[in-house]
Amino acid sequence: FEEENTLPIHFGARLPVKLPQEDKSGDQAAESWGFTEVSFQKFTYSWTISNFCSMLREMKEAIESPTFSSGARDKNRWSLKIHPNGVDEESKGYMSVYLTLLSCPKRPVWAKFQFWIIDSKGEKTQGMKSPRFFSFQQNQQWGFRKFILRDFLLAQVPWLLEDNELSLRCKVTVVQDSFGLSDENKKPGIQVPRCTLADELGELWENSSFTDCFLVVGSQEFQAHKSILAVRSPVSRAMFGHDMEESRTNRIEIHDLEPQGFRAMMGFIYTGKAPDLHSMADIRLAVADKYGLHRLKVMCQHTLCKDHSVETAAHTLVLAHIHSAGNLKIQALDFITSHDSEVSETSSWKTMVGSYPHLLAEAYSSLASAHCSLLEPPPKRLKQS
Prior knowledge:
Layout: E1 19-22, E2 28-32, E3 34-37, E4 40-49, H1 52-58, E5 63-64, E6 77-83, E7 94-103, E8 109-118, E9 124-129, E10 134-136, E11 140-149, H2 150-155, E12 166-175, E13 179-182, H3 197-206, E14 213-217, E15 220-224, H4 226-232, H5 234-241, H6 245-249, E16 251-254, H7 259-271, H8 277-290, H9 294-306, H10 313-322, H11 326-338, H12 340-343, H13 347-355, H14 357-375
Parallel strand pairs: 14-16
Antiparallel strand pairs: 1-2, 3-13, 4-12, 5-6, 6-7, 7-11, 8-9, 8-10, 8-12, 14-15
Helix pairs in contact: 3-7, 4-5, 8-9, 9-11, 10-11, 10-13, 11-14, 13-14
């Protein structure tokens, strides 16, 4: 990790500081206090680089990411930079990574950061974290000269470089503006805490507190809350709301999920969060469709659209058809239309043709429509009378 001659910063948080005041005689006469409020902003940026193996072997110049910020209102602009073969003689043979502050309205910006590589399963690996907050001036960069060995990275294809792509993720924590109060006649302002509803509901599920129903998955039994299930899932609401066995016994048997997938679904129902969606989107799509979890279904479609590839396109089309995912189906057909010759050679395409022949007709119809739109001349203008 590269360092500069900068001074460390220390942060106070809601700690009253009593300063003894002395009168002219030297005796303690009064006390006053000080208060400093410091807040932090955290955000994550993901950067995918295609044809990375060739770039790593052949390029010597650094490659820089698009500019990014924490949001529309943030005026700080950042970028990531990769040096394929290090930045000096000592780091030769390593890939170096840096975070650069391109512009900022107020200087300096204090920040710490963490880098990961995202593997083919969508999981974070090969992470490195800055040991402390660093002062960023405009156009200044901080990072890791020896982030990862080039030879190791190339040897891990396709685990780390699926489809010859490098997926790099950077998490940045920025110190926000602080303000101070002092004088015994002033008091700290009222600070509104962040909403912790999702965290608290998650604890309600994890700790099985105040439960009133049972869910049986395989040989395991879980406790839950009928009201939360009914509000979040129309399928559960129908079970508990009508004169069904589940309503009378407060017990539901689930036969189509493994305990791990069931826990993930319940985590989403209670908190609205869906971790590891990248590697489990196809399975979660089926669950979301069956139990009426509309937002999770849209999230799965969004993830699957981002992960389109020649090898998986036909399988994605089948998933979209089975689970009535209209937007995903349109995107899959468009991708197949654009890569028809490559997709038609894949095993997933041949499986689709054998099991869902009507989807083959839809794919050919989409292809024909695309070709017609390319061949049609521009419409003639109507003459005005």
